[in-house]
């Protein structure tokens, strides 16, 4: 909402014509304002903070054992994983939907133009499926929000796995954020051509070059690591 207020104030002071629209102003496309950069930077903490420690807490207070008496261990843990994934995704994406909807209530739904909107620098190097953005911007925006939902759920599960291994809750919840900072710093070394940091490929337009391949590789690695952490965490909790 802070970014929205700033944009509306600037729009009221400067005549930008008819080329401003939700697709060119919302938080997912804005790479220059602090509010946008900060939101995607702390996204792992937002996804993990409310739900990552839920399973560990219920194991400690004995509630999980009551659930386990009614269902098998696998069914009980899968239930926690599903809710963690869903809530982690919703916590992050609901503000994004509200942000886009707020802009849509103020600005006309004008399609972005690669000439009139050159200041956004939405090009194939820093934007996934850039042709879809210019021809079907709403579909591109919804796809972006859906990918962010999936990734936020994965981050929440990753943090849950870390809480099962590490006793320090603050460190466990911050694990995804720490990994993201490392990937951003690593990107500065220019070892890889494309960014592996979610802060880049989860936005419609990133600060570094992105690709579907790099995003897919990162996603697969996170899924594998998360699976191992969750499996080891459950084995450790029940001494299997």
For the termini, the CA-CA separation is 48 Å
Total beta strands = 0
Query: Low-confidence parts, pLDDT < 50 over ≥5 residues?
Result: none
Following the backbone from N to C, one meets helices and strands in this order, namely HHHHHHHHHHHH
Q: Tally the helices: what do you get?
A: 12
Proportion of strand residues: under 5%
**Structural class, please?**
mainly alpha
Integer-rounded radius of gyration = 20 Å
Biggest sheet features: none
Mean pLDDT: 82
Instruction: Work out the helicity level.
Output: 55-70%
Shape: elongated
Describe this entry's structure for a reader.
Helix 7 packs antiparallel against helix 9, helix 9 (137-165) crosses helix 10 and helix 9 packs parallel to helix 12 (212-238). With 240 residues, this protein is mainly alpha-helical. The mean pLDDT is 82. The protein has twelve helices and no strands. The N and C termini lie far apart (48 Å).
Descriptors for this entry?
elongated, 240 residues, mainly alpha, single chain, 12 helices
Q: How would you summarize what this structure contains?
A:
The protein has helices spanning 2-13, 22-25, 34-41, 43-48, 54-61, 63-70, 73-106, 130-135, 137-165, 169-187, 198-201, 212-238. With 240 residues, the protein is mostly helical.
Topology, element by element:
Blueprint lengths: L1 H12 L8 H4 L8 H8 L1 H6 L5 H8 L1 H8 L2 H34 L23 H6 L1 H29 L3 H19 L10 H4 L10 H27 L2
Helix pairs in contact: 7-9, 9-10, 9-12
